[in-house]
Design a protein that fits this description.
alpha/beta; Rossmann fold; 6 helices; 18% strand; binds flavin mononucleotide
Length: 208
Amino acid sequence: MNEASPRARVTIVYESMFGATRQVAETIADQLRPFADITIVNSANADPTEIMHTDLFVAGGPTHVFGLSSEATREEARKVADRSDAALVFEWPDVTRGLREMLRSLPRASRPQHFAAFSTRSAKAPRLFTGSAARRIVRDIRAAGYLPLVAPRDFLIDAGHRLVEGQLSEAADWGAQLAGHLNLLRERQLAADKGVGPKTRSSDAPAL
Ligand SMILES: Cc1cc2nc3c(=O)[nH]c(=O)nc-3n(C[C@H](O)[C@H](O)[C@H](O)COP(=O)(O)O)c2cc1C
């Protein structure tokens, strides 16, 4: 973000076997679009080097076996869809390339760059018992030097792997919250560029 490029750039990368996490990602994108140039892409097709040019990196994936999916759990998801008599459509393009693999090639942040993480997980129990992919996403992205913009967020699915009613409106609220934080950051950055305010520091990040 600088004076030559006043619009913020946001990259949203998602993983989604049956479409629930994709729907959340698209809803978040809709909320951010009035305020930023948005790239939304699945992690199988994402180019990690593009993240270097983004101001806010939003990453989301489904919870598999308490954390981020692996090639084996994505393969298992394909079988779940095959057994579901077409009620579930397996839409992931390449089981060898998930968010976990993409995050391994994430370039280190070279300036104050922010991120937000979300996941989808079962509604049947509290997070302690279901696990959350978002926790693992946070760990991986923080390790590359990015600053958390907000706390990670889980969106809930039912036993049929569909979003529970009301979750897309929760996702819209979370997207609006991200937009608010992003606008604040941008204002501060523009003020700092003009020499009238403090620059973003790593200590500005919320405690998670
Ligand atoms: C192999 C496999 C393992 C799963 N493990 C968990 C789990 O440990 N905890 C949980 O809450 N949900 C679990 N789920 C449910 C997924 O979180 C759910 O399928 C996902 O949120 C749906 O989102 P998607 O359509 O974007 O993939 C699992 C699903 C699969 C296919």
